[in-house]
Amino acid sequence: QSALTQPASVSGSPGQSITISCTGTSSDVGGYDYVSWYQQHPGKAPKLMIYDVSNRPSGVSNRFSGSKSGNTASLTISGLQAEDEADYYCSSYTSSSVWVFGGGTKLTVL
Amino acid sequence: EVQLVESGGGLVKPGGSLRLSCAASGFTFSNAWMNWVRQAPGKGLEWVGRIKSKTDGGTTDYGAPVKGRFTISRDDSKNTLYLQMNSLKTEDTAVYYCTTDGIPPLMDVWGKGTTVTVSS
Fold it and tell me: Which residues of chain B have pLDDT under 70?
């Protein structure tokens, strides 16, 4: 199972919006609505931010939103804040009934 | 509060073995599917494997890099998940996390991780 494709880095200024893409295939992202996004600060465990493509767990800011079109899922963060600076990973369930992750995207808040 | 606490990490020589544990609390562990996920230093997340609940067959699946070397098991009486790692390689050096899973599939709760270093 190949890793999902994410940009290595994105950046934005406070208050702006950014979008991180996550591209897979019809066997994972395109075939299932089980796409999740995780935020990871240095030295910390990943934190679930979005699940099932576009759902937010309780306690996650509504500045975070998710979507999907074909084989590509996207995470959008609006009203960027300094605390959003972190690594972000997408994951998808697959036709092999296993999980696959994206390579991760480093978000820099300028 | 739902909590996962990993333990058992450490320094081991190439070719050696190590067993990790993940103690679960705050939810019905016996009903949960559980995963192991790892992260090599400076690298991304990598799914290691999963064990289903006994009521769903208790079967396991593994990622290609660890298949045949790693074994996931569970003791529902102790609310504990295990990862037995044999024939360890330097590339197995990573922080190992346990996570919950289930039906529908979702890795929502993560432990803080335990560090495994494979080096001579």
Answer: none
